[in-house]
Amino acid sequence: MINIHKRYKSSVIASMNVNKKTVSRWGIFKLSKKYDKRNYLIKDVIEKPSIANAPSNKAVIGRYILPKKIFTKLSKQKVGKGGEIHITDAIQSLIYENNKFIAHTFSGKYLDCGSMNGYIKSTLEIAKS
Q1: Residue partners of 50: CB distance under 8 A and separation at least 6
Q2: Which fold has domain 2-128?
Q3: How far apart are CA 61 and CA 44, in angstroms?
Q4: Do the beta carbons of residue 96 and residue 63 sit within 8 Å?
Q5: End-to-end CA distance of the chain
């Protein structure tokens, strides 16, 4: 991700394809330009969209290289879906201000701790190490 950040002089967010039926669990990207097989320019990011409103099945998976100004955005961010402050809302705001963000298709092992089932599977996976 650091290499992508340096190459494109851009913020980078790790992503992966998720099942369309589960998009409401994730921040989902709307993509514009494809740079190569694993990197896309992000046009928008929507936090936990419905299946009908999901612009893709490319999900935010919690690995970021972000500009310093994200902290200013977060400090002023209003509460979003589920009564939480979402980093995706701050990122979306920066995208609308013409800041460049790239979705990088993550190639490492991803452990999902966002649900009880995922947490249990992650714990068992770590225990194998």
Answers
A1: 23, 24
A2: Spore Coat Polysaccharide Biosynthesis Protein SpsA; Chain A (3.90.550)
A3: 15
A4: no
A5: 24
Report yes or no: 89 and 45 within 8 Å, Cβ to Cβ.
Answer: no
pTM for the whole structure: 0.85
Rounded-to-integer distance, Cα 105 and Cα 89, Å: 21
Look-up of token digits 């928008």: 44
Instruction: Count the alpha carbons within 13 Å of 61 in the hemisphere toward its beta carbon.
Output: 18
Rounded-to-integer distance, Cα 106 and Cα 63, Å: 9
Q: pLDDT per residue over 11-24, tens digit each? A: 999 999 999 999 99
pLDDT at 101: 98
